[in-house]
Write a structure and sequence with these properties.
The structure holds two protein chains of two kinds. Chain A is mainly β. Chain A is 7% helix and 43% strand. Classes of the chains: A mainly beta, B mainly beta.
Chain lengths: 491, 90
């Protein structure tokens, strides 16, 4: 349902719920009780708590609260076969009970019909996910939880009414709330899609206030008609030289931001979800910062370390990181690169390998330069290709969902950069030749790209730009192309 | 012989008999009904049933019976559990 409602492939642990409930391997217990437990506690990713075949103690990582899909999760029992088909057509999958017999373990591609031989005893009651149906073959299409080497790559066809599959009602859920960890590659810059709102998809944005050093929290009500923008909470900061780079973290889904100060250092702030206040995380970094920082939470440690890359006045890039445990100290990792004109909110931890760091900066010759840090081989920053021309400000980059075929796959990189008062949209095909291509040029009076998000609106790309008149404006891309949105306010 | 079941996770017990044929017969038997609930309503708790094998002495002799718990389609994975039984029929 996360994929259907929010256009994201989530990675969820199959071990979290059974062990969280206290069930013994491999008896989950009651599907209704399991759903209630998920509604109360969420469901985490496998790196927080993995599936095991043994009855290990339930010891999820300490930041579990910030890395669980949750939400109201309206659970509905769907009783009749006709209603179940209608649910599959219009809503999503259904959990079903099923009587497992001995011959189901080696079932292949045919429509399953249990043997009536005496040896074919009942091994247990089982739960699977119905993802479709085939009236031609009179069969449900189910996804099992026994790995991709079972059945048809983990799926099977089961005849209508077979082995009790239609004996009981099937369970569907709606209204799920994906976590910041799941969404972490899908946003960059001063905008995130949060879990706020009844559909869990409000936008949150940080912007400077009239160039005066204060930072204002904005939000877009994505439940209301016309999607109005509002300001929220008292401005904070007082020393911001640029729009902050905003993210949401596994710390209780807190928002966190880093910006360059008027004194040419870096300043960290965090929004405490428990008290709804922005709190000062302190000034850090070198004394010669000169650019918009990239800022992410990575997967080193649990909670994952923070990583920042920003341009310095010597036209290089500096990489800083904070180990997210006591004493919470920021450290410089390395300086690299040369002839850098602009750094921006382009730092991501991609799905490659153990999570390579990737960024794109703009060079003094107005071309873009791709850098990546090989996390498997010495964590060394390596120079990628240069591409584009005429770029006049910092680029903004995400790893999106286009090109990804499952939750473990890498998506294409999407990048927007201001050039000659317009926006250039570039993308890298991460399943083909790996080359950067420009797909569109659009907009007007644009000084810089402030944010890029792939949100819950049908895989649309959402863009925030800073115009020459210091106004922030929204653009978005759907299947018909890029569209000019509202002017939000001044920065 | 009664073993804990893990059928809901795809695991089942299989048996091999090493020794002369016709000494022992091994037959898989049902181990009881599953929990039930009202048809058309929410399903009952899902549980794995224990697995039962009935051993019958057929003729004098000695065999080794090996029970293994595994997933039958994962042929390159060692069994999760293994039980061996030396049986002499006098």
């Amino acid at each position: 349902m996360v994929r259907i409602e929010h256009c994201i492939w989530p990675r969820l642990s199959e071990g979290d719920v059974p062990k969280g409930i206290g069930a013994k391997c491999a008896d989950l217990g009651n599907v209704g009780a399991a759903t209630d437990w998920i509604r109360q506690h969420g469901q985490c990713d496998p790196d927080c708590f993995p599936w095991t075949t043994t009855d290990v103690a339930y010891t999820p990582s300490p930041d579990r609260s910030g890395r669980t899909v949750r939400g109201a999760m309206d659970a509905t029992w769907v009783g009749s076969v006709a209603d179940q088909k209608a649910w599959l057509d219009t809503v999503g999958p259904l959990a079903t009970w099923f009587e497992v017999r001995q011959d189901f373990f080696t079932h292949g591609s045919a429509v399953y019909k249990a043997s009536t031989a005496p040896w074919n005893t009942v091994a247990g009651g089982h739960l699977m996910l119905v993802v479709g149906y085939d009236d031609g073959q009179k069969a449900w299409i189910v996804k099992n939880s026994w790995g991709t080497t079972w059945g048809l790559n983990g799926y099977a066809l089961i005849g209508y009414g077979e082995s009790g599959i239609d004996r009981y009602a099937k369970l569907g859920i709606r209204n799920v709330n994906p976590d910041p960890w799941t969404k972490r590659r899908l946003h960059n810059g001063n905008l995130v899609e949060s879990g706020n709102g009844s559909h869990y998809r409000n936008f949150e944005m940080l912007a400077t206030v009239g160039g005066g050093g204060l930072v204002q929290h904005w939000w877009r009500d994505n439940d209301a008609a016309g999607f109005p923008w509002h300001t929220a909470y008292a401005p904070f900061g007082g020393d911001a030289a640029v729009c902050p780079t905003l993210t949401a973290t596994t710390y209780n889904r807190n928002f966190e931001c880093v910006y360059m100060t008027t004194g040419r250092r870096l300043h960290h702030w965090w929004f405490d979800q428990a008290t709804h206040q922005w709190r000062n995380g302190g000034v850090f970094g070198p004394p010669d910062v000169w650019g918009v920082p990239g800022f992410i939470q990575g997967n080193y440690g649990k909670p994952g370390n923070f990583e920042v890359v920003v341009r310095t006045s010597d036209a290089r890039l500096t990489h800083w990181w904070r180990e997210n445990g006591p004493p919470w100290t920021w450290r410089e990792s390395v300086r690299f690169g040369a002839n850098v004109a602009f750094s921006g909110p382009s730092l991501i931890q991609s799905s490659y390998s153990q999570g390579n760091l990737e960024l794109v900066c703009v060079l003094n010759d107005c071309r873009m330069q791709h850098w990546w840090r090989d996390s498997d081989h010495g964590m060394v920053w390596k120079q990628g290709p240069t591409f584009g021309s005429g770029c006049s400000s910092a680029p903004c980059m995400i790893e999106g969902q286009f090109g990804a075929s499952n939750e473990n796959d890498v998506g294409n990189f999407e990048l927007c950069v201001a050039a000659g008062g317009r926006v250039q949209h570039w993308w890298r095909n991460n399943h083909g030749d790996g080359l950067w291509r420009r797909s569109a040029t659009f907009g007007h009076d644009i000084q810089a790209v402030a944010a890029l998000v792939e949100g819950s609106f049908g895989f649309n790309l959402e863009l925030i730009v800073l115009r020459y008149d210091r106004k922030l404006q929204h653009y978005w891309r759907d299947s018909a192309g890029w569209h000019e949105g509202v002017v939000i306010g001044s920065a | 012989m009664r073993f804990r079941g893990l059928g809901s996770a795809g695991y089942s017990w299989d048996v091999t008999v090493d020794g002369p044929e016709g000494v022992v017969g091994v037959t898989r038997r049902p181990s009881g009904p599953l929990p039930a609930a009202e048809p058309g309503g929410p399903p009952p708790d899902n549980v794995s049933l224990p697995e039962l094998f009935e051993l019958e002495g057929l003729a004098p002799g000695h065999v080794r019976i090996t029970f293994t718990l595994g997933r039958r389609w994962e042929t390159d994975v060692p069994p999760l559990e293994r039980e061996e039984l030396e049986v002499t029929v006098a």
